[in-house]
Amino acid sequence: MSEIQFMSDTMVGMSERRRWSDRALCTAFRASKPMLKLVRAVMPKVKEEEKWKPPEKMEKRKPTSQAEWEASLDTLAANKSMWSKKEDQEKAILLQTCMNNIVQVMEEAAAIGHRAKGQYEMGLAEEMFAWVTCILFAKETIQFLLEGDNCLHGVTSRQVGNQVVCTVLPTGLDCMLYAEYRGEVWLEPGQPPTVGQKAKAVQEREELALILGAGNQIPVIFGDVIHKLFVESSVAMLKFSPVNCYNGTVLEKVFEPLLNLGILKFAYGGSDVGEALVGHKKVDAIHLTGSEDTFNAIVWGGTPDEGAEGTRAVNKRITAELGGCTPYIIFPGEWTNEQLDYMARQIVAGKVHNSGHNCLAAEVVVTSRTWRQREQFLNRLEHHFNTTAQRVPYYPGSFEKYKAFKRAAARANLKELGKVGVEGAVPWILVENLDPKDVDGTEHWCGVMQEVALDLPDDDLNDFARSAVEFANERCAGQLSCSVWASQEVQTKLGAAWEKDVILGLRYGSISVNTCILPAFGFSRLGWGAYPGNGLDNIGSGNAMIHNSLRFDHLQKSVLYCPLPVFPPAIWLHDIKNGENIARLAAKYFANPSIGALAKLAVANLRA
């Protein structure tokens, strides 16, 4: 595969034309922004009746018998070579069918998801947007299958020290939606910007992969399947988590062409089924989304013995995307009232989404104790928690974690927040004004948040940058994702230190600037996974960079820059209005982009 730096003259010319087209679209949006704001101000807003519902107990799927999953493995093994050798254009047609199937079943699927998780301010929209994310994964993967290296047209690159940084967002018609966003991928030091070589190596091995599915979110499951089948060209057995095996009914419809072709199979059941599949001789590789404890149980049969490679319980290629404690770093500076309010609203969205049962959920907010606007910011944070429905911790074990945190933090400045709603819901917990040494830097997987105030003289930006980065790297478990809030003025004042000390200094695989982390997960062009360097005996947040639709071989991290505030309102906000209609139109637009579909989506978003 070619490198960006060494594209042919023809490709460079095409790249320049697409780049200028993208710039023109972004410029058009910026020019129309004042008019659009005026239109939104006079446009009637959608008034929605809130229909809060507690979670229901969902019926479990019948466990797959050994005879059934053995037969499935036989089918998959027989089709490894066929699938590996199938032309990318044929694969794209199959994935396009799956994507169109999502549009057809999305509302049914969202209703099932909310029955299991509960329904709050957004109605069905929260789960509908989860399925929109699946469409985005499919769309961006289809683009590479059809265009190959040509989908790198419009990607620009620059050198920062000995690292290549590629700007991959926004592109195409999406520039009208994300004109003021910027998505970058940072490659590992000293590595060239090659694409597809690692994926090609896996493809040539013709692997049968076991996917141990996530229990919390449908885009994680969908993204893992897409990555294995369409990036690495493996066939796959998807073993559902018992927590959300109810998704199987819908995914059978979505993935119908892949199931019928015999390149994807499903298995249901508990840990006994998972253990049998992990150890089966026909399974060549394993991918897990879950916890570090589960990973260690699979690889080591418990905890790893130091350096004892021979003690591994499983000697197969195993990759994982695991969790962590996600820090939100707030740089001191002069923020407007609108910016402070929107910042607080976004951070609350980053916590309450999926009731806090996310690997990217906001956990620790890092501020400067001497920041002049700190109290004002904390007041807005409390306000947005208090105007948000309390939720039921539906995920098994999460209520126990919630109670344990509450007991441990009882003597701290603990506040219980939120609007009382459905039966079984619990308050959002916010603990403020913690000393760095008192922060619990583990992943809590529930509705709790901590604020730590760093003691620094005179709000020196460079001192804060160094201290906040050190805290995030050393005191917060994992290396998955981090959010940084810094005005353009602050970034300018920091100068070279902004990238050198902050962006480069943070050992996280995904960094979001002036936004919660939810949108960074949704763009597969950015990649998603832990900062490189974890070993099997110290796995941290994992050892895989997934959702990598552009197939960069040496991804170190991605950085997503967002405007503050976002206009029109960000669709990932927990309290957005007109959400169901926006999600419905977004699904149709991303599945089959057109100016008409984009216009309908824009009008709906203006009414949010």
Structural class: alpha/beta
The portion of residues assigned to helices is 40-55%
Q: Uncertain spans, ≥5 residues at pLDDT below 50?
A: 1-18
Corresponding CATH superfamily of the domain at 326-540: Aldehyde Dehydrogenase, Chain A, domain 2
Instruction: From the alpha carbons, calculate the radius of gyration and give it in angstroms.
Output: 23 Å
Number-wise, the strands total 18
Q: How many strands, what sense, and barrel or not for the largest sheet?
A: 11 strands, mixed
Strand order, main sheet: write it out: 1-2-3-18-15-14-9-10-13-12-11
What general outline do the C-alpha atoms trace? globular
- Average pLDDT, all residues: 91
State the end-to-end CA separation: 44 Å
Under the CATH scheme, which architecture of the domain at 326-540 would be assigned?
A: 3-Layer(aba) Sandwich
Protein name: Aldehyde dehydrogenase domain-containing protein
InterPro entries: Ald_DH/histidinol_DH, Ald_DH_C, Ald_DH_N, Aldehyde_DH_dom
Organism: Picocystis salinarum
GO molecular function: oxidoreductase activity, acting on the aldehyde or oxo group of donors, NAD or NADP as acceptor
